[in-house]
Amino acid sequence: MGKVSLLRLDSGGGLAPGNKYFKLIGNLAEAKRNGVNRLVSFGGAWSNHLHALAAVGAEQGLATVGIIRGDEDAADTAMIADARAWGMQIVRVSRTEYRRRLEPAYLADVQQRFAPCMVVPEGGSNRAGVRGCAAIADLVRTHSPAARHILLPVGTGTTLAGLAAGLDSTYEVTGIAALKGAVDLEHRVEQALAAVAANTVAPWRILHEDHCGGFARTSAELRAFMLEFEAVQGIPLEPVYTGKLLYAIYRRLRSGQWRTDIPLLAIHTGGLQGRRGYPWLEG
Ligand SMILES: *Cc1c(COP(=O)(O)O)cnc(C)c1O
Q1: Mutation choice for ligand 1 from 47, 159, 188, 278, CB with most ligand atoms inside 8 A
Q2: Does the chain have fewer CB atoms within 10 Å around its N or its C terminus?
Q3: Which CATH architecture has domain 19-123?
Q4: 49 alpha carbon to ligand 1 midpoint, in Å?
Q5: Which residues form ligand 1's pocket by a CB distance below 6 Å?
Q6: pLDDT in tens, 135-174
Q7: How far is 82 from 272, CA to CA, in rounded Å?
């Protein structure tokens, strides 16, 4: 149904391919410029961001620290086990402490505790992260020169902002929100775009009806769609972002809401390490 092609960031080189890698390369370059060789960041026990940070740290010989939300004594997830194996120092903090991760005073404490270091926000959602994602626009141009309708899943909006900033007004970028009721997302994307002061920005929009129950939640329909998609296409998805993206496209083409004769380019943003948290996918 329809003419959908995929740009697969999930199968590049590296230990942890996907959009998080692009957000991190800008941050690594900045750390190196400043002569800092330890990066500290935040995430949950299945964070794709911390997984990618641990991987690129190992690849590039930088020390990494992952501050993890949740119980001190919880067993390691497969994500944390990988991160440790790649040399990341894991620091578990309470949910109360984790909630302070945006407070300047707390960040100053963290900065001092692991000094000399660079603190990267959760999800890699800073200006260097937006800049790094402009490289995804180059991949769009080389992979599918004729593609003009680009779709991707959205968490913080950093990747969408970087992509839109790397494309021109002949493109149309559509983001599928993975979170329910993320009413500030458009504002965050606008701020991210302002921060990088792009010359041209592709028109973009975010659709908010495809979260399937909320962040990291799934519905029976989503699960059935993903299992069938994987069986038919032989392409792995994960339920937090990429499954919701493909399911949103499928539903809109099937219902006639979107025309099936317009070619669409969907970006597979990776995150496949997270599949291990979903037993129903691993059978
Ligand atoms: C983090 C993530 C996203 C969302 O990226 P943002 O830049 O936060 O919008 C999308 N897909 C995958 C697989 C991710 O890990």
Answers
A1: 159
A2: C
A3: 3-Layer(aba) Sandwich (3.40)
A4: 8
A5: 18-20, 48, 123, 125, 153-160, 241-242, 269-271
A6: 999 999 999 999 999 999 999 999 999 999 999 999 999 9
A7: 13
